[in-house]
Structures are given as structure tokens and as C-alpha cells.
Amino acid sequence: MSDSQFKPHVTLACVVQAENKFLMVEELINGSPTLNQPAGHLEADETLFEGAQRELWEETGIQAAPQSLLQIYQWIARDGTPFIRFTFAIDLPEMLATHPHDSDIECCHWLSAEEILNAANLRSPLVRESLLRYQQPERYPLSIIESYNWTKKRLS
């Protein structure tokens, strides 16, 4: 048994749909425009739901809460970095204007599933996989995730 602990990065992503379009963020990675769902790392003082809402607001300016859990992915990036990605679904009644607050986000786009699935500039294979998973009928209730005794006081 190894002495080192396995410490994957915990990330949160939102597949946001309105009017049959999906909300994507564009960021520059090594100078190239790259598409991703609104997503980012979980911070120490927040629940998974709070983190997903924060990332959505920071990257798009939209305030919305996850409505269901789509999938939990365990993934190792090309550089060997391990990730656990919680992917949530949010269905909005209409496409909303976006106002990114995160300086890493160049802009936001409402795109069709076909445009995303055929894009050559996705941040990771999980972007495509998450959209394909969204297109399946199964959804998991948020009650499957419990933040047991998870308060900011606990961390101070």
C-alpha cells in the first residue's frame, strides 16, 4: 500500500439548457478559444450545490440552482491530474443574457447540441460526455447528495 493519499480535484459543472440551446463558456487555454460548460473547483467552505451555483454565476452572471444530478465522473486528464466531476442539470424557461464575472471567461454562447458535439475545441472529453448524458432521460434527485454536518463553522 502506498504512503501517499489520493487527492483528486473535485469539480462541479452545470449543463444549462433553454429553448433547445445549451449555455457554454469560452475561455482561452494556451491562447486558443476553448468551450466548456460552466464549471470549476469546489471550494473548502461550500456544499456541492453552493459551488455549482457560484461557478454558474461567476462564469455567466446567471443565478440558478441545480435541478438534478446528471452524472458523477471519475476522470484522469492527459497530464495525469485526477478529477471527480459532479455534473448537474439546469433547465431554464428561456435563454438569458450573460455577464461573466470571472476574468478567465472570454464570453458565453448559447449553442445547439449538434454545434457542441461537433466542436473541435472542447475543454475536455467530459464536456461532450455530459451533453450526451443530458440527452438521456435519467436524472438523479439532488437528495442523493447529503451535506452532513457541513457548515462553515466546522471549517473554522
What is this entry, summarized?
The chain has 156 residues and is of the alpha+beta class.
Structural account:
The chain has 156 residues and is an alpha+beta fold. Strands 1, 2, 3, 4, 5, 6 and 7 form a seven-stranded mixed beta sheet that branches. It has helices spanning 48-60, 113-117, 125-134, 152-155; strands at residues 9-18, 21-29, 32-36, 39-41, 68-76, 82-91, 105-111. The mean pLDDT is 93. It has one domain: Nucleoside Triphosphate Pyrophosphohydrolase (Alpha-Beta Complex). The radius of gyration is 16 Å and the shape is globular. It is built from four helices and seven strands; from the N terminus they run ββββαβββααα. Its cofactor is Mg(2+).
Please, how many domains? 1
SSE succession: EEEEHEEEHHH
> How far from one another are the termini?
32 Å
Helical run tally: 4
Which strand-content bin applies to the residues?
A: 25-35%
Q: Would you state the CATH class?
A: Alpha Beta
Which CATH-level-2 architecture?
Answer: Alpha-Beta Complex
Helical proportion?
A: 10-25%
Average pLDDT value?
Answer: 93
Tell me about the largest β-sheet: 7 strands, mixed
Computed over alpha carbons, the radius of gyration is: 16 Å
> CATH superfamily assignment?
Nucleoside Triphosphate Pyrophosphohydrolase
Find the structural class using helix and strand composition: alpha+beta
Q: What spatial form do the alpha-carbon principal axes imply? A: globular
Q: Per CATH, what is the topology? A: Nucleoside Triphosphate Pyrophosphohydrolase
How many E strands? 7
Runs with pLDDT <50, length 5+?
none
Q: What's the quaternary structure here?
A: single chain
